[in-house]
Predict the 3D structure of the following.
Amino acid sequence: MTGPETKTGGRLLVECLLTQGCERLFTVPGESFLGVLDALYDTPEIQTVVCRHEGGAAYMACADGSLTGRPGVCLVTRGTGATNASIGIHTAMQDSQPMVLLVGDIDRTMRDREGFQELDLPAMFAPLAKWSARIDDPCRIPEYVSRAWSTAISGRPGPVVLALPGDMLNEKVASVAPGPESVRPAQAVCPDAMEAMSRLVGDACAPIAIIGGADWNEKARHFLAQFAERIGIPVAAAFRRQDAFPNSSPVWAGNLGYGPNPKLARRIREADLLLVLGARLDEATTDGYSLVTPDHPDQLLIHVHPDPEELGKVYRPDLAICADMAEFAEAACLWDSDIVPFDAGKQAHREWLEWSTPTKNGAKLDLGMCISAMQAALPADAILCNGSGNFAMWWHRYWHFDHFPAQLTPACGAMGYGVPAAVAAAMRFPDRCVVALAGDGDFLMNGQELATAAQYGCDMLVIVVDNGGYGTIRMHQERSFPGRVSATELKSPDFAALARGFGAWATRVETTEDFAPALAEAQERKGLRLLHLVTEMEYISASGHTVSSLRAQGSG
């Protein structure tokens, strides 16, 4: 007579991942979770992507969650691996991206002795994540995994961390079934709230919408565009959320954040009603809470968000609506209202077109002209991925997004995000054009993930903008301490040669005239490709500022 079937905690965990719809996870292997790796060996339904640094792996999981609306999964080891991956948790939280980080932990019998790489993982991640916990009983793995997925996708999406003691993963338990797949609750909008919103918008003289952020998807985008175009309200995107609305729409007004169109900023200040949909009105979007102040005198604020904890958290709303963004957008589109269409949307769009059309700036390699060449040459549904730095602002200003998802860029301002995000995008959408954009300082924070891209045959283009320094900090330095350059100069390698070492095709571009031919040659090829763009520090900003003008301004 045989006893009940048993399985290890590691195998049960993998079964639970399958039940939750996990198709891929990103990892740097560690001995603390060998039981999980062994179970993955027998689970071809989950692709195990081996990365070169836990920070890169975590960024890939962030991006994958953003692309799918389901948690991106990252698996790392205790101590060093967990701390390396923590930047991804911070990014996923500030960017409202669903993510689950699984961390192999020390054995339960070793705890509280400051063992090898020991950390109190739940305590460490508590202020960074939506929820962090440790699984000590393998029988409760289904419960914890189900809760992790539900937490990550509900309300304002975000990251969850589960610590997995190594001996728990190896412990055998009687047959335990995985829990059911977690589904995001979709809260419909209250009809009374819709009526109130319609009345307030209809009574306004100069309303404007600010959109993008938590729970944004193609359905929300589609219906909101119809609603906004019907009533003629200008629509602006929160910081780094430009693909949340079709930029070709006649009411698209542009994006907020660092260096926005001054005419758009003036529209925000002069608006008598702000319709904020999905956005948190964070520091970058509001220019340090000054463009829109938390008390917003002389402005009505309608704030629609899927998480009740975000409503009234910083900004005082005159009308707070807690609803699923797609449900709200569809209801707004279909709502039978008598709002007289506004003329402002079309004028705001004309202002954006003028702002987002590059003009020559005199640089040897003019990034604005290069972006025009890119826009003409690349498919309309290209996915652009970037980290942070002044280089990114050129694309934020000049690139026209008309597909979703098409922009992977950290609202938290994390450097080193572009290459890992592009790896995740190339694997998720192998038939779409994927471009990683990086500065010279930004690139070297996770450039090693070119090895991951090469290992998995990713078809992606990397553009490295090399101006020999940390440009954003240099810009602030010239404003505050003109001419006193300190700790912002960089001596970088030959990025094209470096890329060839990873098996990529690569070339160096030093003039505007050479860019289009180099891009065309890159497009003719498949696999990993890199363009090394050598630029001048003088032309430091897409807003038109030069180092010379900033220095003169600071000296004055």
Summary: Residues 54-68 form the longest helix (15 residues). The mean pLDDT is 95. The domain at 191-353 is CATH 3.40.50.1220 (Rossmann fold).
